[in-house]
Amino acid sequence: MHIYLHIPFCRQKCTYCKFALTPIFTDIQKRRYLSYLQNEIIEWIKTWTNIFPQTIYFWWGTPSILSPKELSSILELFPKEWREEITLEANPEDITEEYIDTLQGIWINRISLGIQTLNSQSLKTIHRSSVDTIYRALDILKKKNFPNINIDLILWLPHVAYWETHRALTELHKSYPITHTSIYLLEDETYPTDWKEATISIDKMQQEYVTINEYLAELWWNHYEVSNWSRPWYESKHNQSYWNHSNYRWFWLAASSYINWKRWTNSPSFSGYYRWERIDEETLTEEQKDIEHLMFSLRTSGTPISKLTQEQISILQSHIQDGYIEKKEGVFSITSSWIFLIDHIISQLI
What angle do CA 343, 347, 350 make, to 5 degrees? Predict the structure, then answer.
């Protein structure tokens, strides 16, 4: 079982953010929310036996906004057996030596640091931490020998020049013991209108993505999902659970869960969540399972021929000559240069 915990509070909301969260809250509102979260966990655990959370992931808004005491009170609700990976998403400004010491004391062994870019103008535009704050956080994690550090970067941000993200990545990897890197493509529908003129072209963005992938491949990093790379043996076990259809339970506002082919989502509003409302409840049909297996496998290690219909095989075969798809040892996978066509190719297959 994999556990996901949403923290819907931020000190400031990023310009591009579409998540259900709030930058305006009081300590009383936060305590109320944490109380409902703990009740949701307790009530769920009562109905399930032999729950062994392999991974626990604090995500969504700014989980590092919680104190170590608040984090610990949540973790104590779950059995301690079988825990392999406990991840906390953090903003650089929350990282102090004392905070990291305490996190390690409560067995949080993975940090996901939201960097996004090292361009000062862009960071100011998107309402993120300063470059100095980013480096200070990384210096602390390095000094404390934190065992597993992920950094998040975003391509296609305003004011970030061509190749700048690649240069930032190489600098960070040479200076810090980073074990995992996530690189996301900013969706253009989230842009304020005045960002368009301040961003690189889509062609240049795609070229930079390919160059970054080639650079990480030279380091023998594993590109195990379209947006995720890791050193060998440092793949995120939690992230992989979504792509291989493992059971996972998400808690809190707007959280989605998936257990034994059944999927549901908590209400995205505070009032709805406090009334225990759920939305989008469904049990996957065999056809839906096959479609999701196909989608997830193409995004990760590739799709075995044995899992495909003859029509699907013919479609993928036709893309080999184009250079979009490659076939090795009975597995179809999309080539890194054409990863941006993945949604188009999947739409042809389903």
Answer: 135
Instruction: Tell me, yes or no, if the pTM score tops 0.85.
Output: yes
Residue that the structure tokens 């798809």 belong to: 325
CB 117 within 8 A of CB 154: yes
- Domain C-terminal end among 214, 241, 268: 241
> What separation in angstroms does the CA of 182 have from each of 224, 225, 236, 283?
11, 9, 10, 31
Structure tokens at 253: 């506002």
Are 238 and 2 a contacting pair, CB within 8 Å?
yes
> Between β-strands 222-225 and 248-251, what pairing exists: parallel, antiparallel or unpaired?
unpaired
Residue 24, pLDDT score: 61
Say whether both 66 and 140 belong to one domain: yes
Of 186, 177, 190, the residue nearest 143 (C-alpha):
177
Residue 190, pLDDT > 70, answer no
Cα Dmax for the chain: 61
Domain interval for residue 7: 2-241
pLDDT digits (tens, 9 = 90+) for 307-340: 898 999 999 999 998 888 999 888 999 887 778 8
What single letter denotes the amino acid at residue 73? S
* Residue 303 bridge partners (DSSP): 332
Last residue of a domain, one of 208, 241, 274: 241
Strand-pair partners of 5 = 58, 251
- What does each C-alpha distance from 88 to 42, 71, 148, 238, 322 come to in angstroms? 21, 10, 11, 12, 41
The pLDDT of 131-160, averaged and rounded, is 97
Lookup result for tokens 């042809």:
348
The DSSP call for residue 126 is: T
Query: Which of 64, 186, 71, 185 minimizes the C-alpha distance to 114?
Result: 64
CA–CA gap between residue 300 and residue 224 (Å, rounded): 5
Q: Side chain identity at 144, as an amino acid letter?
A: K
User: Based on the domain organization, do 20 and 125 belong to the same domain?
Assistant: yes
**Which residues make Cβ contacts (< 8 Å) with residue 39, sequence separation at least 6?**
none
**Burial annotation 304-342 (CB, 10 A radius, 16+ → b, else e):** eeeebeeebeebbeebeeeebbbeeeeebbbeeebbebe
Helices (H), 176-264: 202-218, 237-243
Which one is predicted more confidently, 91 or 21? 91
Residue 104, domain CATH: 3.20.20.70
SS3 231: coil
> Residue with structure tokens 């729950």?
51
